[in-house]
From TrEMBL:
Keywords: Hydrolase, Lipid degradation, Lipid metabolism. One of its GO terms (molecular function) is 1-alkyl-2-acetylglycerophosphocholine esterase activity. One of its GO terms (biological process) is lipid catabolic process. This is Choline esterase. InterPro entries: AB_hydrolase_fold. The lineage of its organism: Bacteria, Bacillati, Bacillota, Bacilli, Bacillales. The keyword Plastid does not apply. Signal peptide: none annotated. SUPFAM superfamilies: alpha/beta-Hydrolases.
Amino acid sequence: MKRYDIFPEPIGDYIAGRTQMDFEYTASDHSKRKLTAFMYYPSDSSERKTASAYMFPEVYEMLHEQPLVTEYLKEKNFFSIDIKTHCYDDLSLSGKEKRYPVLFYVCGGGGSPEWGTAICTDLASLGYVVVSIGHQNSTMYKRKDGKLLNVSKDFSDVIMAFSEDPEMVALAGKMKMRPDDETAIEMCRNVLTLPIINQLTRYSEQQAEDVRYVADYLHKLDSGELKSIFHDRLLLDIGMGIVGHSYGGPTAGVVCRDDDRFTCGVGLDSGAFGLLDSDLNKPFLLLFSEPNYYMNAIIGANNSMETYYFTVNRAAHLDYCDIVFTGVDEELRGTRDAVEMRNLVTDYTKTFFDHYILQKAARVESLSYDGVDLIKKTSNK
């Protein structure tokens, strides 16, 4: 297994800046939420700064404190944080354009906002401002004020209960490669009507509320109500995009469904928790490894806008995030070349957002990667 001590060079021409912000607010369920976010953005120069550290060591150490990590797993190394990035803290925002479009990135459950460093840096180098949030209870992170927040026991218990649910185990045993649409939709509906799904949905909706709060905050930054380098620099009136990996994918779907400020969304090897009878009414792209079609087939069945399903062969679940480069356990990796995997994930994501946010002509159907197939495109207009 090849090891990487540095991420690949960013795909775009901009230098990627990064800054961290903390947020606190009272959610609709009256809980107090303490969040953080890394904002990646286009810059013209590294200003001779040293590249940003990948992940705080304290955050990495928290992984082994999560209830989901068993004693057996505690003896294993999943990934390394000893890798160099290509982003730089607190640079000036590029002056090449007056305003820059905005995306959100949502990491998988139990992960950290840094797990999307590769794709967020790529998208920033291509001219997007990208916000990666640390969500209280469902992710692990260190706030700028130094406070550490780990995954809660309640969230861990819900994930474990879902994975061990007898009905879910029985359904998973019936999931085969490349099912017909009717079978996949029925299976997805059966999964999403399991009682345990209600608890998983609660966290997806909580994360979506976090995203909406930070989106409100960005409007204040752009208006100048709050002082920052983003005053009058964010291209918000054309709509924002959101991409989520794994458990972050349903969050992206909920945000698209509930917030018209978001134009479109992407799910990376994700599911449809909370989206059983939802019309997203937004273009949505799903990039996944089979047999995951069963877990998200209902999205396209209900969506009145375009839904794209692309399968990726020879890829493992964690290949869709930074672990494609930081992983040190072969069991976590697929067999596809890591750089090629990164290229295709960034390319499909960027092309999709370019088309639906920036109105560029290029479309995801025109992309060609070995072993990546468009199995379905729906539109229920």
